[in-house]
Amino acid sequence: MSLEDSTVTTKAAGMASIMTRLRHAFAQVPMLSWLLGILLAVLIEHFVGYSFAIGLGLSNVPPLLGVTIIFSRPALIPNVIVFVLLVYVLPIGGLALLSAPLMNRFAAKLISYPIFVSGLLHLALLYADLHIWATINDYRIYIARIILIAILVTLSLNVVNGYMGEFSCSHPGFMALGAYGASIFTVVCFVPNNVFGVTLLPAALGPFLFPLAIIFGGLLASFGALFVAIPSFQTRGDYLAIISLAFMFIVKSLIENLEIFGGARGFMGMPSWASLPVVFVWTVLGLLIINNFVRSTLGKALNAVRDDETAATAMTINTRRTKMVAFLFSAFWAGVAGGLLAHVISYVNPGSFGILKLSEVLAMVYLGGLNSVVGSLIGAVGLNFLMEALRSFEIYKWIVIPVLLILVMIFRPTGLVAFREFKVEDILNPKVETVKEVEHAAATD
Amino acid sequence: MALLVQMIFNALQSGSFYALIALGYSMVYGILMLFNFAHGDIFMTGAYIGFFISTGLVSLAALGIFPLPNWLLLALTVVFAMIATSLVGIIVERVGYRPLRNAPRASAAITGLMIGIILETGNLALLGAERKNFPTFIETKTYQVMQGVTITNTRIMIVGLSILLMLGLHLFVRRTKWGMAMRAMAYDYVVVPLMGVSSNTIAVMTFAIGSALAAAAGIFYGIAYPVLDPYMGIIIGWKAFVAAILGGRGSIIGAALAGFLLGFIEIFVGYFLPSAMRDFVAYSIILIILTFRPHGFFGEPYSAQLRL
Q1: Mutate: best of B110, B266, B275, B305, partner A, most A CBs <10 A
Q2: Is residue A133, in this structure, part of any structural domain at all?
Q3: How far is A437 from chain B (nearest CA, A)?
Q4: At which of A75, A109, A128 does a domain end?
């Protein structure tokens, strides 16, 4: 009896030690190795994924790591697990572990150059991963762009709702302004149509001047944000929430009444210039700028205004300027996201920027976590994956997702990963500090 | 002149829907300091519960089981629907708000929004997308009040009953012991529980009363516009919410008056401008009012001490 007990405990201890050793080993894997591992996985999928999937009895490569299959065709779950294990988990984990010592050394060398060298290399690898992963089919290209845009919206809302602590409901309105602004810009300038007559600029210039259209949309959204930012000087909390809500409804019904832009029927004719690299660049740019913003003095001022406005004023923070900048900044990125979204689906209508959009965006922010860039990433990606996974539930999707969100709110009221700082250096740095330590770590292993 | 009187009569009806729903928002705010974002959908649920009870009663009466007169059937519908909907409100409080009593208020707002989505989608999933027609209890009679001004008997009934319900609520809050407990909670939610008033009981009661009023509004809405759809709570409910704010948070009289005011604004705007502009102008007026008077008509002015 006691012997059996002891074998069980040693076995458990063995398992635990394997787990800790694995965790220890993976803790030393730098971001470069992960990206290389993912590159290997997506390359494998790109070249042999289809035939492998057919061999496993799947009709095609599982689009989102198999999440779309879990509920629609449960019988195929084992096959999908095998596929994901062999194509993703093993190559990523294996290559990450194998290349970790080398890549730690490489990352340590890279970090001695200016930070953008290392950053650009990481971004290039990340984009290569994303590109090879997404171009397998149109669905992936579409969903990747939607998720990237969702990340941008979530981040921009987190600036106001998380970092500044207001409950702003106006982001669908900002998105609508951005979407319409950018769309009208491109259509007026580059697309011959029967409403606005001839184009102002040669159409060939279009893709190159497309950032101008996006910026125009963002600036329009910023201008709209003035109507929320100025009342925010006198009031906050609930009343500001109402003002922002009223603003959202006003934007929606204003667009519905502008017959020249299609009214309630919507506006179309934009070329789909928001391709994957374009959306990727904008999202990364937005993420970095928003992250720098919230870590700057001004970002800390936002937190001070959230926690105690009177004390913040006493600490010589100009609360009006802070609020104004935060709203305009946040609205700009929401507008950029709206403009990109309009050029992904080549169609906008005011009906899609209503209460449902608001619930979706708020859900992403509060699921991921307030006051945290990582949380916004997790919230946007998580909710979109969830929505795709539950697609086969059709209407019941909108019962399952709210129930999950209520549970998250009950057990983690500020979201999954709230109040965490996102430091780019931590990602770029090697996981063991110097080359000497790398060798030491290799020797002890 | 005749036109003005006619518009006032029209506005009284839509104003009474807004006022009844706004009362629910405002009462919950007064007690718990948070907005029940699911209230608009509780209104929708109340309308549907009223629809099922009334069709049930009408078909029973047609079979000769309860051969009651129509007005009594209507009264029974209103009473039963109010009771059933207040149960829904109690469940919403229990599931969505009580676990979050000490959480940041934005989290409670999210649960409220999510419960609203659950109610809408649940309705859509259970009953399908086709709209339901509310049975007619009362033959509509049109009276000529003066030259060019007409009013129907249903309209008189709706406005009259709504005002009666509001008066009843006012008396309840002002004259009964329970009402006193509610007012005390609204005054100080920290100390009053120490005096032996259970905050949970008061919260449940507030949700129950608010939901019952929303159910009454739902049935009246069903009588006035006999078409129900699952998203009616969004359109009517959010406007009533804005009315509750306009009246001043936690103020019952303010909510009722602002509800009627919103009705007037909508009817007047709808007459002078194309009806598509109605929401735009109504919300713009509200935005302007709130910019210059952020605490609404009867609310307390904003102060740094207020828990926000």
Answers
A1: B110
A2: no
A3: 44
A4: A128
Q: Which of residues 90-129 of A touch B (CB under 8 A)?
A: none
The phi, psi pair for A16, rounded to 5°, reads -60, -40
What residues make up the domain containing A60? 2-128
Q: Of the candidates A64, A94, A128, which is a domain's last residue?
A: A128
Domain ranges of chain B: 21-230
Rounded-to-integer distance, Cα B1 and Cα A261, Å: 39
pLDDT tens for each residue of A192-235 = 776 666 677 777 777 888 999 999 999 999 999 998 888 888 77
Number of structural domains (chain A) is 2
The ipTM value here is 0.86
* A contact residues 333-392, partner B, Cβ 8 Å cutoff: 355, 359, 362-363, 366, 370
Contact B255/B117 with Cβ under 8 angstroms?
Answer: no
Spatial distance between the Cα atoms of B132 and A57, rounded to a whole number of angstroms: 46
**In contact, B27 and B209? CB cutoff 8 Å:** yes
How does DSSP assign B210-261, residue by residue?
Answer: HHHHHHHHHHHHHHHS-EE-TTHHHHHHHHHHHHHHHH-TT-HHHHHHHHHH
Q: Is residue A122 located within the same domain as residue A151?
A: no
A422 touches A102 (CB < 8 A)? no
Global pTM reads 0.87
Task: Give residue B196's region: left, alpha or beta (phi > 0; psi -120 to 50).
Answer: left
A52 belongs to a structural domain: yes
CA angle B101, A361, B43 (to 5 degrees): 60
Q: Does one domain contain both A203 and A350?
A: yes
Q: What is the CA radius of gyration of chain A?
A: 24
Assess whether A32 and A177 both reside in one domain.
no
Residue A339 lies in a domain: yes
Contact B233, B41 (CB under 8 A): yes
Read off the pLDDT of residues A123-148 as tens digits, 9 standing for 90 and up.
Answer: 999 999 999 999 888 889 999 999 99
Q: Establish if A96 belongs to a structural domain.
A: yes
Give residues with Cβ within 8 angstroms of A366, minimum separation 6: A379, A405, A408, A409, A414, A415, B106, B107, B110
Q: Is A42 in the same domain as A151?
A: no
What is the DSSP code (8-state) at residue A316? T
Residues A180 and A94 in one domain: no
